Amino acid sequence: MKKTILLILTLLGFTLANTGMLTPKEESGMGAWLSYELATLDSDIEDFEGAYNISFDYMTSLGLEVGLNMGDEYGDAWKGLELAYHYKSEKWNMALSWTRQLFDDSNDMDTDALWFTGYSNSRIYGSLGGWSVDGAAF
Predict the structure, then answer these.
(1) What CA–CA distance (Å, rounded) separates 86 from 116?
(2) Are 39 and 6 spatial neighbours (Cβ–Cβ below 8 Å)?
(3) What CA–CA distances, in Å, run from 21 to 24, 34, 60?
(4) What letter would DSSP give residue 23?
(5) pLDDT under 50: residue ranges of the chain
(6) Distance (Å) of CA 123 to CA 41, 101, 134
(7) What angle do CA 72, 106, 74 make, to 5 degrees?
(8) CA geometry: angle at 124 spanning 118 and 127, to 5°?
(9) Would you call 20 helix, strand, or coil by DSSP?
(10) pLDDT per residue over 31-42, tens digit each?
(11) Rounded-to-integer distance, Cα 4 and Cα 128, Å
(12) Cα separation of 68 and 40, whole Å?
């Protein structure tokens, strides 16, 4: 259950930290994002290490965003790739993104995430998506 909660928080972290959302229409941009999570769901665990994520994103002037990610969850290191396309209009913007996490030591935990995100120029947005663990259905 704890791994599921951290997986959801990780995916939301990458959805929220998105260079394309902050880049103006028809301009390119680059961003670096760092997040660190420490869940205190069970106070009996004294040696909980937490999780961190590092992401480097580049947004092209055509609306394509490419990101390289890496992180560590419960001592399981992973690397990842993110591709997103942003469509921007005057009032509302939207993005379709795909993310892949490849865990170094665990073959059964690789994940794919597919998200559709709607957001406005005032940075208020909503997302709909899901993830696939080790090739299972979304």
Answers:
(1) 10
(2) yes
(3) 8, 16, 12
(4) S
(5) 14-16, 138
(6) 30, 26, 33
(7) 30
(8) 35
(9) helix
(10) 888 888 776 665
(11) 17
(12) 28
